[in-house]
Batch of 4 targets.
Target 1
Amino acid sequence: MAEGGAVRRVTTGGSTAYWAPGSHILWRYRENAGERVHICRPVTVVRDDAELLAVWMAPGTECVKPVLADGTPVHGEPLESRYTKARSVRRDRWFGTGVLKLARPGEPWSVWLFWEPGWRFKNWYVNLEAPLARWEGGVDSEDHFLDISVHPDHSWCWLDEDEFAQAQRAGLMDTRLATQVREAGLRAVEVIRAWGAPFADGWQHWRPDPSWPVPALPDDWDRTPAHVSS
């Protein structure tokens, strides 16, 4: 690994560059109906190729998350006004167990794996979002509110349907986009029912390299990418 976990690019078979395992990149989300970055999570690359980007967010990672302008946590605000009050961002840390995030190029969702303490696998979490846009420092997306929880017994359920509906009422998502998001969710459900990738790939048995340092949050975490390519 490069010193300090710095980004290392690996070029394979032409001009497509991938990040080497152990590299540190930023996994970011733009605010809804806006251009500013309001979520930023430094992560360590596990795998990056034409089929999959897999990254590890370690416990204790310093992140950026949205808060209301007065510092109130977003989910502490009643749903009816949650998306209309002024917001800011705050540095914080990811507490609890780490998260493994998996994303296929061009797919409108990523799949996150959660564990209980002691590495007891908890669940997969399908985060519906804009396909990841790659840039030199990491990947950017926009969260689409609606999610799916998938359990070890292969059962599943929708999550955050109330937030999905409220985001539409608040003007953060028009009817066209909401329809696309619901359709993407139904496609994800088809994958779940067929027990396709990544659910059948054994990622719940993966463990991080114990020598990996926790990535640092850079001061310019919200910098605008000089070049973005999908």
Target 2
Amino acid sequence: MPNLFQEVFERARREKRLLGVRSSQGDPSRFSVGYVLSYSEEVVVLRIINRDGMPTAIQSFNLLDVFQLDFDDQYTRHVEFKADNLDKVYAGLKSPAFLEQEDLTVPLLLERAHQAGQLVNVYTHLSMDYYGYVRQLTQEHVLMECFTEYGLPDGLVVFRIEDVRNFIWSNEDTRVLELRLKQRGPQGA
């Protein structure tokens, strides 16, 4: 086994950090993410964590098949963040009272998100979707402050309200993003 593989296995095990293992050269985009339980000259055993942060299996990998390790990259940090915050990410859905009390329209949902400072996920008919905060609203347009799924600022976007296809008030991804942004401190309005 290459010495660098052992060093990365040991570091991931010691630091209790997720590690990505690529073992399918026929499909290099496929990989497994998990915590290193043990390793030897022949195999590495991981507690597999799925993209939702949930443990799903204990799996061994023959080191002759392993061709790449991914450690501390953006994707594994994202899954690790979910795994470390399962109680917050999968806590009960926030269901504001107005959802059951008013005749809902897309403009009203956008206005309520703006008033509540709620991070939302908006999908448009133009096959675009945005995570962010509604910062301004007119009868025809919405201005959103956007973020990537990893919590990085992604600029401002203005689009027509009539182009909104659907609207997510709160789901796993928006809650993860809210947690990331709260850790960074207050956001500008």
Target 3
Amino acid sequence: MIYWQVFGWTCFLVSLCLCRSPLGWQKMRTEKDYQHLVFASGIILFCLWALKAGISEGLDIHFLGMTVLTLCHGPRIAIWISAIPLTLMVGFGLLPFADVGLYAFTTAVLPALVSYAIFQLSYRYLSHHLFIYIFIAGFLNAAFTIVFHLCTVSTGYWVSGLHGWDTIFDNYLTLALLIWFPEGLLNGMAVTLLAVYRPHWLRTFYDREYLSPDR
């Protein structure tokens, strides 16, 4: 278990070092509205991660919310924002400090990268239409991302020997059949509201392309 904790911390710290965004930090220093958006995003993410449920002890599941966060801020800033809920979870005793690195890598870093990769694929190969953005980049993207997250965590539990595969499959992995739709719906609704009322908050949403009159 110590090996996996060290591995998680290493991956998380390397990700933070690589995910430097000079433009994002400059925007945070100069725009108060963006500062409020960043900290509000972190608090909302904390609420989603703190609300856990599970059948077996230690095999808890919760909403991710990383897809809409990535679409709003990009993967680099999204990974940095995840430090806010992680700090709060440690402060409130919801997450052991030793597990922060592994938890961050599987819950924030990988979902952010997967979400952005799916957005890039949809942007490159599909029509630039508002419905495509909401349904593919928002709803289906979030649904696939949380299933990928559950599979990754399940593999980690099994390889580390913390739980047997039968226990993982029956009490954790099968929950993917229940959580993928609510996760997709939550992110899809958030993306829809932002695209309609606050499109400038979506860093990956381009008005001239998705709202062009000839589409």
Target 4
Amino acid sequence: MSSSASTSQDPLGHALLAYQRGKQNATITVHSNVADEEPLPAAYFFRSLWEMPELERTALGECRGKVLDLGAGAGCHSLELQSRGFEVKAVDISPGAVQVMQERGVSQVACHDIYDHALTKEKYDTVLMLMNGIGLAGTLEGLERFLQHAHQLLAPGGQIMATSSDISYLYEDEDGALVFDLNGPYYGEVEYTMQYEEEAGATFHWIFADPSLLQDCAEAAGYQVEFLDEDDQQQYLVRLTLKG
């Protein structure tokens, strides 16, 4: 996709901008290949600290040093960290989201995808990937690639603070047994399309990594793995620390 196409196709960014301009009920419709379509209110991206799930508040409390917030959305995590005195760079692939963050006062904002070479020019003590942020890697292969790539983003002893979920519950039958194709792609790989009003974006891949899979991938990529917390929706918070 050319950059001009991606700039015009930005349903998430346009919904965030609409909310920022006062349209309180701006809502994104999320289509996926594993569940019914779901509404995602733009307001969710603007939540304050006490509106955040406990996993996210814990993650913010564990941040240290210079922080890179990947997939930063409307910047709610970056703004909270800034208010605590952290140096934060917020990055999103959505031009509209980047504009919203600039307007909201996030001091360092850039429009990049997670592999953009420009990001590797600096080293970070914490890479933050919240709101199921591991999903940015897209697929199982993408997760392995990203964990290797992140070596170039992290300072010595740096950490990735990330949330993800085990979505195997979507594949349970009436008896609670799991039913999925063991020869097919990993069950946590999902295809999404976002729509805002009449505008639909391109379909993209998102990965929900179960804890044992993430642990195996991260250890193979040279990280120490520490699961810090989980909630009752199968979501968990993990710290991946670069060894050596």
